[in-house]
């Protein structure tokens, strides 16, 4: 699927960058068309690169790239945007997955005309991510197709109407996997409080979330609400538990506060410009 794409320069071979790179390689991107740039790659990334035949560069090679993907922390955005200039040609497309950093800032500091903001999540690593995407006007249908090909290797892709929508996607889906992993931790902790040994508590909590997520995927015509109701016997145990979780100060207001905090932080990261 990605046989004709590249060269793709991935700047930042960290958790998100490598999650996407795994998807691209699985989708047929040739390792010699993927250029990793990271001055400080982890040992697992170095191992992966040598296994697959990828070269890791200290800085961006002085050669026009078709696509440059920025997956570094927003805090180093200024330096990194200035450093990618040697790889930018007239037709290069810059795709940033950095939370908060605006298109205007990226245009200004990198000099790249075609800029796309994308917000993926780490399930990209197994092709089950979802990515929100927004581009500037210079990005044409051909560029969008290339971006779609790359991003679809990570899972679903949703093009957004406004740049601020990226901040909303960040708070819901970019950060969302962490909320679910924390739910596993919380469920295990509650199991322990109710008398289960720690190892057994984590085993039951983790597999319960894995199983529930699997059911959402397998039974994708059935709403989450219906799947919940399928578990809930009248006046049974689930009903008793949900009375707490669905109460006025239960999960909905907590989740609203959680997502609001993440969305506001995404907006703040953009304001530090
Ligand atoms: N981790 C996640 O779930 C998600 C992260 N993001 C975004 O992805 C970006 C990266 O986040 P993570 O992968 O979690 O961070 P990370 O810390 O795992 O990776 C960042 C990588 O950038 C490298 N780096 C630092 N300075 C560099 C430079 N000058 N040139 C090239 N590489 C450099 C680091 O050595 C590191 O390997 C952030 O902007 C974040 O907002 C977006 C969606 C989800
Ligand atoms: O925590 C963060 O800032 C990044 C963006 C979305 C997920 N991780």
From TrEMBL:
Positions binding NADP(+) in this chain are 71-74
User: A Pfam family for this UniProt protein?
Assistant: P5CR_dimer
Q: One biological process GO term for this chain?
A: L-proline biosynthetic process
InterPro entries the record matches: 6-PGluconate_DH-like_C_sf, NAD(P)-bd_dom_sf, P5C_Rdtase_cat_N, P5CR_dimer, Pyrroline-COOH_reductase
Q: One GO MF term, please? A: pyrroline-5-carboxylate reductase activity
Is the Oxidoreductase keyword given for this protein?
yes
Give the enzyme class: oxidoreductase
Sorted UniProt keywords: Amino-acid biosynthesis, Cytoplasm, NADP, Oxidoreductase, Proline biosynthesis
Q: Name the pathway it acts in.
A: Amino-acid biosynthesis; L-proline biosynthesis; L-proline from L-glutamate 5-semialdehyde: step 1/1
Catalytic reactions on record: L-proline + NADP(+) = (S)-1-pyrroline-5-carboxylate + NADPH + 2 H(+); L-proline + NAD(+) = (S)-1-pyrroline-5-carboxylate + NADH + 2 H(+)
Family as reported in the entry's similarity comment: Belongs to the pyrroline-5-carboxylate reductase family.
Q: What protein name applies here? A: Pyrroline-5-carboxylate reductase
Q: What is the lineage of its organism?
A: Bacteria, Pseudomonadati, Pseudomonadota, Alphaproteobacteria, Hyphomicrobiales
């Amino acid at each position: 699927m990605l046989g004709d794409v590249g060269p793709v320069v991935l700047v930042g071979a960290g958790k998100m960058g490598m999650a996407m790179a795994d998807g691209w390689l699985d989708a047929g991107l040739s390792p010699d068309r993927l250029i990793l740039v990271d001055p400080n790659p982890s040992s697992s990334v170095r191992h992966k690169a040598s296994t697959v035949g990828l070269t890791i560069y200290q800085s961006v090679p002085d050669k026009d790239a078709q696509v440059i993907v920025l997956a570094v922390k927003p805090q180093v955005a200024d330096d990194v945007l200035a450093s990618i200039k040697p790889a930018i040609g007239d037709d290069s497309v810059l795709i940033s997955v950095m939370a908060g950093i605006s298109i205007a800032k990226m245009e200004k500091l990198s000099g790249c005309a075609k800029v796309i903001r994308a917000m993926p999540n780490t399930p990209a690593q197994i092709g089950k991510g979802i990515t929100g995407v927004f581009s500037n006007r210079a990005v044409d249908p051909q560029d969008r197709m290339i971006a779609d090909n790359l991003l679809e290797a990570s899972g679903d892709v949703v093009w957004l109407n406004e740049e601020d929508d990226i901040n909303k996607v960040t708070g819901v889906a970019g950060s969302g996997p962490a909320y679910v992993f924390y739910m596993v931790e919380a469920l295990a902790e509650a199991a322990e409080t109710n008398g289960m040994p720690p190892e057994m508590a984590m085993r039951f909590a983790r597999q319960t979330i894995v199983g529930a997520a699997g059911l959402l995927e397998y039974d994708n015509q059935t709403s989450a609400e219906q799947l919940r109701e399928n578990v809930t016997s009248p006046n049974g145990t689930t009903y008793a538990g949900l009375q707490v979780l669905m109460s006025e100060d239960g999960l909905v207001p907590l989740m609203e506060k959680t997502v609001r905090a993440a969305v506001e932080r995404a907006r703040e990261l953009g304001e530090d410009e």
